[in-house]
Amino acid sequence: MASKGLSTEDRARLEDVGFMTCMTLSLLGNYAQTGHFGGPLAYTPFNVAMHLAGPDLGGLRYDIRRPKHPFGDKFMMAAGHSVPTCYALWMVLYQAMERRHTNTGDKKYAVDPDVAILPVDALGFRRGHDAIKTLLKDLGLNSDPLFAQAKARGIKALAGHAESIDVTNDTNGGPSGVGVATAAGKAAFWDMVGSPIDGGPKVICFEGEFAMTEGHAQEVKTQAMAMQVGKRLRMILSDNNAGIDDALIGGVISNKTPGYVLKDQWTSYGWNVHTIDDGSDYGQVVKVMKDMEEWDAKDRRPMITIAKTVKGYWPAAHNGTLNDGVKQITGYKSHPYSQKMNSEYFIALCESFEKKYGVSFVGIRDGAVSDTKARLVQFKTNLDVVMSVLDQSGLGDWVADRLVAIGDQVKDDHKLNVNNTTDPFQDERLRVANLPMEPQKLSIKNDLSGATKDVSITLFEQPGKAWGARRAISEVVKWMNHVTGNRFVTLAADLSESINVEHGALWGHYDPEDNPRGTRVKAAIQEAGNVASAIGLISQSASVDPEKFSGVWALSGTYGAFTPLMYTPARVWSQQNQDSKFRVGVLHILAGHSGPETAADGRTHFGIFATQVWKLFPRNQTIHLNFWDYNDVAAGYFAAAEIAARDPKVGIISIEVARPDNAVADRSVFADKDVKAAAKGFYVIRDFDASKPKGGYVLCQGASSTVNTVKLLKRFDEAGLNVKIISCISEELFDRQPEAYRNSVLPPEAPYDAMVVSTGTRRVWPYKFLGPLTDGYSLTSDWDHQWLTSGLENDVIAEAHLDPEAIFKGIERFAKARPERIASQAKLVV
Q: I want to staple 439 with a disulfide (CB 3.0 to 4.6 A). Which of 58, 246, 458, 715 is the partner?
């Protein structure tokens, strides 16, 4: 049933809160002398309306007392630099709650200060946590009643761009459009777990027209259509034709070139596009919100409202001027807060507020404040002046009561088609020790459709079969989906079959209406968009307990050479995972055709340097796996999964597998005969002969490099080369082994007596502590510091000097030079 529109009284209330928000964010810029200005102002009317209009009018359904509740709507300030409008609004809202709680004592207004962003946190704007930890104490202000709000938990650090830890915000917004790019995945998650579109969580995303020129952001157009997210996803595009340094139309795009029309760009992709002429008119804003809310849920087109806004908007400006004829700063020139402290322009803004509400700011007409203590006192004093407007005309009571009424609509019980009380990824059947060694013939049933089918899963193969490591990927995904109840989702860049994830979906392709238990999402050739959607999926959880995860894991894959396109979204995800207030899922990156072997397709597909970006994360926050043999895949992967499911720090598992169908290794000839040895990260293929002098340690990583080294085992014996050969699957897994095992494989002296044989490069070694002579003896694909040419696999491997003959000669040279190697290093120690 259609709801009534915005009442005259409520509109006036929204406008008052909006003006308070604009004034507060201006204070942030003035006293911090940094931050963004024009963009946050432009978003403010939509921001205020979304937080206060109420769900019936298309606003957020959320509980400000529990802003990370899983069944609350997902608000995304994807235009990350515009987060000052959020900080400012949240300060107003939480101040209203604190005020009401103080005045009434009613617990329904109580908010945990660790959850809230309060006016005192303005002192932490664009400051680091450590910098503000003792700020008040150092200045002798810790007992000043002006800063009493800091008593409970200190001052919060407020980052310069939006982060997902912030109240209702659900994205780390800003770089390269990665925030908005995750929106489709977030929306699709709630379809996957069976939440109704009407009444279930919706995703509301704010972004600007300049950011939408970014590749990541552009790709969300196709992503959202492919996943058929419908009105659950609602974007608000702020169209003010202003970026950081220029205009879009008439700047970047010449006025001489017609046809660059934002609306057409979205309708041509099939989106349901709405427009409004004035994004600062609360009546127009709420009307379009209401229109989107009441749209038919059966329409599976994602929604966007393109709103004409003014960058540098000010509530009291008229015809481009402020008080006393001061010209309003708008457009790209308003992007940063560039005014000097207590400048003429700032004073004009303040005077318009003073005139509207009959208040007076302190000290702003006395010039800039150079003394830090005096500046912070003036800053907080004037914030309190803004907050005093809550005492006028019942505004504060209205805000607090409105927030409670909206918050009470968020319930712990919610219709889902999954069990949200358990974490399926902690199922004991996923532990390495419990993996089935024999092929499994399983009869499975689709719990939604009732369909049944038989499937086979083979995690371990017999030695000798020509079946490369990449073939095991689909088996691992199948086992994951069998055990978790179809919670492992794959998105590949139109390469699902090629990189061996296609058959991991037990019930085929995902469709929100026809096949919600399908786990293979149809995807375009959009590496950035696909990984962003995967991040959106795993960033959600249906568990009411923040310590327990109930969601999906996701894998996005492509050729190894193209995986750097995924890095920026994944890097930002890693930061978000590190700080998340609730348990989230795990992102998987599959470099499905990695190494020089892929150069058969051409040097454009040559993935030796590219995959090394997956080591560029803080230690212990990702696990990288490089498989060479089919039987390493299940053991190594599920060892990583076992860790990631239990350690919230680990947010990414990256996997490299190569194209060749090499024969499954016969481990009976290995020193470590355990078929699950890869679970330990490093394992010994050939050990030293204790009766002979040692020749050194050979660390093998990658497919052809390890396969061709294994082919030489007998020849090493015949040549009397006493080298220890170690398979390096994962440094991260190896680091987690007991010290005794690590020392048995690589004792402390080994790094100074080691060489590497790898399809990778000298830029990133498989082990972090290798000695100074390693480079001079190692065999890698970049041996001559040139890009290889292309050709048949054997041609490329020979050119890379990783064919059996080249490997033998290299190891022979290394082993025979041991006395001189050790002696030369000893001379380096004075």
A: 458
At residue 126, φ and ψ (nearest 5 deg) are 60, 30
The pLDDT, as a whole number, for residue 294 is 97
Task: Please give the Cα distance from 122 to 442 (Å, whole number).
Answer: 59
Sheet holding 233-239, edge to edge: 74-77, 203-208, 233-239, 303-308, 272-276
Q: SS3 for 725?
A: strand
As beta bridge partners, residue 699 has 726, 756
Percent of residues, the chain, with pLDDT higher than 70 = 100
Q: Which of 297, 288, 298, 399 minimizes the C-alpha distance to 58?
A: 288
* Across 244-267, average pLDDT: 90
Taken in order 574, 578, 582, 583, is the CA torsion positive or negative?
positive
3-state helix/strand/coil string of 79-139: CHHHHHHHHHHHHHHHHHHHHHHHHHCCHHHCCCCCCCCCHHHHHHECCCHHHHHCHHHHC
Nearest Cα to 618, choosing from 650, 592, 591? 650
* Integer angstrom CA distances of residue 230 from 185, 416, 556, 609: 12, 18, 23, 40
Q: d(Cα 117, Cα 663) in Å, to the nearest integer?
A: 59
Total number of residues shown for the chain: 830
Q: What pLDDT sits at residue 376?
A: 97
Candidates 23, 84, 33; CA nearest to 337 is 33
Phi/psi at 414 (nearest 5 deg)? -150, 140
Listed in sequence order, the residues at least 6 apart from 448 whose beta carbon sits closer than 8 Å to its beta carbon are 417, 516, 517
Interstrand relation of 622-626 and 652-656 (parallel, antiparallel or unpaired): parallel
- How much is the pLDDT for 2? 55
Q: Nearest-CA neighbor of 407 among 752, 62, 134?
A: 62
- Taking the C-alpha atoms of residue 658 and residue 656, their distance in angstroms, rounded to an integer, is 7
Q: Which of 823, 485, 472, 437 is nearest to 656 (CA)?
A: 472
| Residue 666 DSSP symbol | -
Q: State residue 587 phi and psi, 5-degree precision.
A: -85, 135
Task: Collect all residues with Cβ–Cβ distance below 8 Å to 106 and sequence separation of at least 6.
Answer: 100
- Residue 792: band (very low, low, confident or very high) from pLDDT cuts 50, 70, 90: confident
CB 469: neighbour CB atoms within 10 A?
28
Rg (CA), the chain: 30
Give the contacts of 621 (CB within 8 A, at least 6 positions apart).
574, 577, 578, 649, 650, 651, 652
How confident is the model at residue 1, as a pLDDT? 43
Task: Provide the 10 A C-beta neighbour count for residue 363.
Answer: 15
More confident residue, 100 or 789: 100
In this prediction, residue 670 carries a pLDDT of: 98
364-403: per-residue pLDDT in tens?
Answer: 999 999 999 999 999 999 999 999 999 999 999 999 999 9
Rounded distance between C-alpha atoms, residue 722 and residue 622, angstroms: 35
Q: Could you report the per-residue pLDDT of 511-565, keeping only the tens digit for each?
A: 999 999 999 999 999 999 999 999 999 999 999 999 999 999 999 999 888 999 9
3-state secondary structure of 654: strand
What is the Cα–Cα distance from 508 to 510, expressed in whole angstroms? 7
Q: Which run of H or E residues covers position 532?
A: helix 527-538
Burial of 98 (0-12, 13-18, 19+ CB in 10 A): buried
- Is a pLDDT exceeding 90 seen at residue 245? no
Q: Rounded distance, CA 31 to CA 23, Å? A: 12
Q: What is the mean pLDDT of residues 669-680?
A: 98
Task: Give the SS3 label for residue 327.
Answer: strand
Contacts of residue 264, defined as CB under 8 A and 6 or more positions apart, other chains included, come to none
